[in-house]
Amino acid sequence: MRKKVIAGNWKMNKIATEANEFVDEVAAKVPEDKQVEAIVCAPFPFLAAIVDKTKNTNLKVAAQTMHYEESGAFTGEVSPTMLEDLGVSHVVLGHSERREYYNETDETVNKKTHAAFNHHLVPIVCVGETLEQREANETMDHVENQVTKALKGLSNQQVADTIIAYEPIWAIGTGKTATSDEANEVCAHIRQVIGKITSPETAEKVVIQYGGSVKPANIEELLAQSDIDGALVGGASLKSDSFLQLVEAGT
Ligand code: PEP
Where does substrate bind (predicted)? Predict the structure, then answer.
């Protein structure tokens, strides 16, 4: 059985005292349960302190993006080497906001996915369609293309260890959630695509999250679907009690 992975994406929110308070309230309460994993995706300035605070707890720590190069003249960027050295365990790649505002492409996502594995970071690869693409019936082709390009050149084991987050862009931060059936249909398609490019056994191991206005009120129905193995959550992950409710739903 695949584990459930609940990841809270804080985006560009909180200051250090708020980040530390959140982790103080949450870290010790994340259950030691092999079937559920809780991750906080924090802004770069807070990562070192959060990694330190979460040692000996079950709360994992992710960065929200990174460069694919190990070092060099890339002013303002953060490398996979730095994240590995800090003790970060996961990294979000190709979030639609990075694709829209920071020129993230399927090609850079692929380079970053390889870089993540070279540095013992688990990539959380985001894919998803715009409202126009959904209305034009292009959702399945679009996510197939994104997933295929993101995973290009990885070994079957690396693919099995990758987390895919299916996030329809029209549902992110809008309060509009895909219905659980709509979300499951796309997650099942993603698993099929992964099965084609690797093997059905590999595809069965891949954790596929849904993201887009997930909250305590709708997470249980989403997690009850056959191909939804967790959630990438923005707004509802900012408050410690609501994040803990989301994690609880995965247990
Ligand atoms: C996200 O940040 O990836 C996200 C899905 O945000 P929200 O839950 O606020 O829609």
Answer: 9-11, 173, 213, 234-235
